[in-house]
Design goal:
- With 171 residues, the chain is α/β, with parallel strands linked by helices.
- 36% of the residues lie in helices and 10% in strands.
- A three-stranded parallel β-sheet has the order 1-2-3, covered by helices on one side.
- It is globular and about 45 Å long.
Length: 171
C-alpha cells in the first residue's frame, strides 16, 4: 500500500530525497487551529526548499495562500504531504476544508488525508480510486501505539490515565 502512495514520486530520478511532511490535526490546541496548523507546514516546507518562511503575521492568510509553499515542490524534489485528522479543522461547517488543494494538488505533490465520512462528503469530487476507506483503529491497537510512543520518549501512562483512555475510547 505504501508503494502505491509513492507511485510516481519514488520512481523519479531525484537529486535529493522527496520532502515528507506529516501533521496530525487536532492533537494539540495549535494543531486544532487552521492558521497555526498551516503555518507549521509552511515553515517546514520553506526550510526544506530553502525558501523564506511565512511571517507569523501572515498566519491568518495561510488558508488562502499556502499553495505558494506547496508550489515549492518540484519534479526533482517532490513533496509527500500526510495530513491526519483534517476534519479537526471542520469548524462550523464543511466549508472549512476549502483550504485543501483539491481536487488536484500541484503536480509534484502527493497528498494523503484522513478524515471522517462527513468531511469526506464535503470534499470536491475526487478521481476514482483516490478514496480508500479504513476501519477505525481498534482500542487495543491504539493503546499499544500510545504506550510505544510514550516509551520512546521515556514516558508512560499513569494508571488513572490508562483508565480514562479506556473509558473514552470504549467502542
Amino acid at each position: 500500500a505504501a508503494a502505491k502512495l509513492l507511485d510516481g514520486v519514488a520512481e523519479r530520478p531525484a537529486a535529493r530525497a522527496p520532502v515528507v511532511c506529516v501533521r496530525f490535526g487536532g492533537l494539540t490546541a495549535a494543531a486544532s487551529e487552521l492558521p497555526a496548523f498551516l503555518f507549521s507546514i509552511c515553515c517546514q516546507l520553506a526550510a526544506a526548499y530553502d525558501a523564506p518562511p511565512p511571517a507569523l503575521a501572515e498566519a491568518s492568510q495561510l488558508p488562502r495562500r499556502w499553495g505558494e509553499w506547496l508550489s515549492l515542490a518540484t519534479e526533482a524534489r517532490p513533496l509527500l504531504l500526510l495530513l491526519d485528522g483534517v476534519d479537526a479543522h471542520l469548524g462550523d461547517g464543511t466549508a472549512a476544508l476549502r483550504w485543501l488543494p483539491l481536487p488536484q494538488p500541484p503536480p509534484s505533490v502527493r497528498l494523503v488525508l484522513t478524515c471522517d465520512d462527513k468531511a469526506l462528503a464535503s470534499l470536491p469530487p475526487l478521481a476514482a480510486g483516490c478514496v480508500r476507506p479504513l476501519p477505525p483503529l481498534h482500542r487495543s491497537d491504539a493503546m499499544r501505539a500510545l504506550r510505544s510512543r510514550l516509551a520512546s520518549a521515556g514516558r508512560r501512562l499513569q494508571p488513572s490515565q490508562t483508565a480514562a483512555a479506556s473509558i473514552k475510547n470504549n467502542p
